[in-house]
Design goal:
Shape: elongated
Largest sheet: none
Number of domains: 1
Radius of gyration: 24 Å
Oligomer: single chain
Mean pLDDT: 81
Number of strands: 0
Structural class: mainly alpha
Distance between the termini: 64 Å
Strand content: under 5%
Amino acid sequence: MLTIDNYLDSHYIHRSNWLRAAVLGANDGIISVSSLAIGIATASTTRDPILLATIAGLVAGALSMAAGEYVSVSSQTDIEQADIEREKHELATMPDIELNILAEIYVKRGLKKETAMIVAKELTAADALGTHIRDELGINEVSQANPTQAAFASGAAFTAGGLLPLLVTLFAPVSNMEYFLYGFTIVSLVILGAISAKTGGSGIAKAIVRIVIWGTIAMGLSAFVGYIFGVDL
């Protein structure tokens, strides 16, 4: 049976937080590790340096992504909590002003002043703090992110993405490894773009073109650097 909660949860926006972290992590894992491997492969004639650099890039990148995501989301959460505490204080010390602020918000959304004040009073009576957090501060369950969840999703996704070029460095011939890496990476990016677009409900073609273009630029520049500074490793 379809309920209101189930209907609301079906919207794509409810997936935005974890989907953003997962897509960013996987995309970064594929492109970063592939670019690093291509740069070393262009400059090397043996497999060991390529493999070592790829593994190091995979481990360092996954930890960096997880730590960066955790710190970033935690900072956002701290700011939100500070605003919530400030809102509590303002509701306790100047409730009339806060009521007028709330009514003005509803007026800007299209309600008449009289209707807006009625709505503001009823919502304030029901849950003053929750109403101001949602309508004045713009904080809700969708926009709030969990630092641990975001960090795990980002780190795990980077690892999954980075494992793909690692497999290429293990089994592809050294002489043409950069071409194998590029081809395999492009295919992986196309798949990732299609999956992320499908999951997020956006256009698949647009997502694929965007991710392939930037991935190609990153790998091309890495190969160029490897070619310019290439030595027998």
